Task: structure prediction
Amino acid sequence: MNLPIPSALPRAALHRRQWLATVGLGALLSACGGGGSDGLLDPEPSRLQSLASDLVSEGLVGTAVGWADAREVRTAVAGLRRLGGRALLEPGDLMAIGSNTKAMTACVAASVVDQGLLRWDSTLVQVLPGLAREALPVYRSVTLRDLLGHRAGVMAFTDQADIDAFERQVDDEALASLQQPADRQAFFLRWLLQQPPVRATGEIPGYAYSNAGYVLVSRMLAAATGQDWGTLLELRVAKPLGLSLFVGAPLRQGPNQPAGHAGQGGRLQPLALPEGMEQAWLGLLDPAGGVSLRVRDDALWLQWHLRALRGEATPLPPGYVRELLEMARATVSNYSLGWVVQARHGTNWLLHSGAIGGFEALSIVALDGSVAGLAHTNTTTQNSMALLFDSVAALMA
Result:
């Protein structure tokens, strides 16, 4: 199928322990050490615009940057919607955030836990007994928390190799016979849970990053609530927080939205959208990486986190906020609820990045509630994520 699978670039961040120093965030953490936003200067609009424009001058097609503290949100955009076209990227354009979607799915899960319909330690065998009966025994005691923190050992589905393994064992006729999304999801998850577990990687015990794990989360949420993931996302994240979220590539909303770009034949090219059965199967991974949104909505999403971390009342689920506050006390790197936590120089930071279909995104949130920054691009190159890191580091310094 050759699907543009959402990838999870924080995996690389966990393995490259020096990335903070490389992009200048090491000095930033030392300088900003806690105590709220006092002493942090709001970036001038011209500075944000300059950062966005500088990213375009470095070879990115279109870029958006955002900054927030507990009081204000500021954003800027630069570049083009599509290489070879004349339409400029606009502040209201959608940008795909890939695996940054995971924190939103975790937020939904926390709301369901708060409601008492699930527990963090609810297992597959308790919530999905039919699916668990067909699974390898090793997966039956996997919990909701395990899946959200990538400790379940299920296949990653972050690159083409896992798609190829799936296709080798399932014939096209069987796949084509599954017309309803719920049937495709059930078929995929039955197959997934019959595959041997993958080995843990990196410095976190039991940690093995998996997009497919978040598909299992969405199945558990649907079983507990009777509503699909997209409906839950709208009702429990978008509406309470006042965000406009779109599930799918920006171009799915209309031809005047940005296209994703990647290197093909030695130069950047706009990427075609998958269609037909490819698109139908890619949609299974939406809970892991399917959201697109405006840069201002992404900045507002981060601002709600800052307010909650400062102890203010917010629409974020209380259980989600409690988990974030627990992460703020971490002394080592960790992953929970769609966020990597990095502990540096007495201050902890949440971060996550994502890439899908020629788009990339990065978000960083100070766990003391002081400041947050983000960057988007509709370009994937060998150094595009490093450029986003540099931009956010400069923005938050």
